[in-house]
């Protein structure tokens, strides 16, 4: 089980359709301040079904839609697709490759797809449940938050542990 | 179940101790289940002990920024050993580290990359050096992100690091 | 008193706008007193607006780590202009900044150093370059801190940066 | 008004008496992780009279006393002195130079001095009150906390501002 490809369009600062391919091993993302690196992390969290606009640094979920820039009009929707290699069938589907897509329109309406078949957000979250894929656990270390695990109170830490175990 | 928890806990505790010692080049660390009065065993909090080499044991709050980052990384990797996650996203986890410790962090990432796919965001050349692939994110057009492929040796990579390609 | 507050507020607001634009090379920032219902004017919260150059206005939570650091520094310096503090201690305030922004941060520190004494902790050579004096802190004897004088050009300084002199 | 000299003995990792002289302008403190740089900041906060052991990263105030190291015995007390240039009489004392000293013994007893005259902690705090010297304001940016001012809620931010104004 591994990530294969991430596609973003209209998601935060990624106004234009952008594709990032992930291989085995270590993939580095580099660049100047404010250019969009952490937005890539937000895109992965978002397409995996996070319910919390705070986990993607917004003040409301609509904040993930590209708001425009100097001389560039805002977008009407944000869309992220993540393709995973499922040849070990970590995800309980017969597909060797699974693409999860999440879309949000300015109206607040959302659309969700698994391998291009429409579904509900609930279905995406249930598909991932228990697989260790998902971002409410320790597999995403957010910028400036590495201390959190170590300085959190003993009970929070216990919850993280239980989830891991 | 309680047995499964204890088995996993002992394993994570042991791994945490080993990885900590490898990252710090010595010292000692531990995970301890609190023994608070009247609290069910499955509800007890989890304490972390960490003693860098040559130092006396102090509470984890007294550790330095860099020491806490390394301790957190050791714990995350220990949790991965017990329950491997397919991938791990590290967003500037090396921000507080001095050069020597970035090398150690990069070494640990490299080692665990055999079983786990890593995506690492960094401004540091030594972290970049252990990447199999590097993507640059720039904003040639202000406010609009763009992905570029980057190689460490080419000028593009180094320019990206210097903050060029930013509006 | 309310008049004094408003006078100071307008001054800080204006300074914040200027310093922000200098650090970011453009863009716009503002300080806004909330207008919540039924709350006394002296109790209203304070909102920060910050729009880096070329970008559209978004809430401050959406800014990047580096952008937030620079915005915070601009605000602190604006507060200093209104009410100069004799000294300012900055502990790794440059940790999230790319090289180009460290230069800008260092430039702002240098400029304000005329009126305020700065003590800056850093791992970054460009921040060190604007210091009038540099002290190194090492632990030759594990667990025991020792102060050494450092010059940027000598080997001692560079070794200190690489993490040598640490147990 | 400026800082002239800091002396630490038995304070956190500074087991041995250590003196740091501060000149006008920018003084940099550098060194590897865990060697004591932030402890210098804690020493300044502490000698200026902080009441909070959390503000010096401890779990109790006794945590500031050197606890020993490999082959080095712990100390029985911590002592920090800070000398300030008072030629502009920012501090309401006739002295041109003011040295503030704070000492804490393992028994929990504290001793306080202004220019070697014993006083109470209260006297140090009152001396500094309103001078802009002190560390409960924005003149100390702690490691990892630079975001705090910008991400805090509007009311906290207002309080910081009011103190500045
Ligand atoms: N919905 C949106 N529309 C347009 N721009 C957005 C949107 N959401 C966030 N941004 C912009 O994205 C930028 C932040 O990007 P990001 O956090 O990915 O930067 P970064 O590359 O991680 O930088 P750093 O190195 O400083 O952490 C901000 O300038 C912000 O204004
Ligand atoms: N009372 C004490 N006795 C002995 N050692 C102590 C005491 N309090 C703190 N320390 C030690 O001081 C060290 C932390 O020092 P400090 O936070 O100043 O490091 P630093 O130089 O700022 O490092 P970094 O670059 O990682 O931020 C820790 O290793 C801690 O164990
Ligand atoms: Mg970022
Ligand atoms: Mg520190």
Q: Widest sheet of chain B: strand order? A: 1-2
The beta-strand count of chain B equals 6
How much beta of chain A, percentage-wise? 25-35%
Q: What value does the average pLDDT of chain B take?
A: 89
Distance between the termini of chain B: 54 Å
Helix and strand content put the structural class of chain A at: alpha+beta
From the helix content, strand content and strand pairing of chain B, which structural class follows? alpha+beta
What's the helical proportion of residues of chain A?
Answer: 10-25%
The number of helices of chain A is 4
How many helices of chain B? The count is 5
Bound ligands: adenosine-5'-triphosphate, magnesium ion
Determine Rg of chain A (CA atoms, Å): 16 Å
Per DSSP, what share of the residues of chain B sits in E-state strands of 2 or more residues? 15-25%
Q: Could you say which overall geometry of chain A the principal axes of the C-alpha atoms support? A: globular
Indicate the low-confidence ranges of chain B by residue numbers.
none
Which range best describes the helical content of chain B: under 10%, 10-25%, 25-40%, 40-55%, 55-70% or over 70%? 40-55%
The major sheet of chain A is characterized as: 6 strands, antiparallel
Describe the largest sheet of chain B. Answer: 2 strands, antiparallel
**Uncertain regions of chain A: pLDDT < 50 for 5+ in a row?**
none
Order of the strands making up the biggest sheet of chain A: 2-1-4-5-6-7
């Amino acid at each position: 089980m591994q990530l294969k490809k991430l596609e973003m369009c209209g998601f935060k600062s990624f106004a234009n359709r952008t594709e990032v391919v992930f291989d085995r091993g270590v993939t580095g993302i580099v660049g100047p301040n404010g250019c969009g690196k952490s937005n890539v992390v937000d895109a992965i969290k978002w397409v995996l079904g996070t319910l919390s606009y705070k986990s993607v640094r917004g003040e409301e979920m609509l904040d993930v839609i590209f708001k425009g820039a100097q001389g560039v009009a805002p977008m009407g929707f944000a869309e992220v697709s993540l393709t995973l290699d499922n040849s070990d069938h970590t995800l309980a589907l017969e597909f060797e490759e699974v693409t999860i897509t999440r879309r949000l329109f300015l109206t607040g309406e959302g659309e969700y797809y698994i391998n291009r078949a429409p579904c509900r957000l609930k279905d995406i979250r249930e598909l991932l449940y228990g697989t260790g894929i998902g971002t409410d656990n320790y597999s995403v270390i957010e910028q400036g938050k590495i201390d959190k695990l170590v300085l959190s109170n003993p009970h929070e830490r216990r919850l993280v542990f239980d989830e891991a175990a | 179940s309680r047995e499964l928890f204890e088995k996993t806990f002992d394993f994570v505790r042991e791994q945490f101790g080993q990885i900590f010692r490898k990252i710090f080049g010595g010292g000692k660390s531990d995970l301890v289940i609190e023994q608070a009065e009247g609290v069910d065993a499955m509800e007890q909090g989890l304490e972390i002990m960490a003693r860098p080499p040559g130092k006396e044991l102090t509470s984890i709050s007294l550790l330095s920024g860099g020491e806490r980052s390394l301790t957190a990384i050791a714990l995350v990797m220990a949790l991965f050993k017990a329950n491997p996650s397919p991938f791990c996203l590290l967003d500037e986890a090396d921000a507080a580290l001095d050069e020597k410790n970035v090398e150690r962090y990069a070494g640990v990432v490299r080692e665990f990359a055999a079983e786990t796919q890593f995506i690492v965001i960094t401004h540091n050349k030594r972290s970049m050096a252990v990447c199999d692939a590097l993507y640059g994110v720039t904003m040639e057009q202000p406010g609009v992100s763009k992905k570029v492929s980057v190689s460490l040796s080419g000028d593009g990579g180094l320019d990206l690091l210097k903050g060029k390609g930013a509006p």
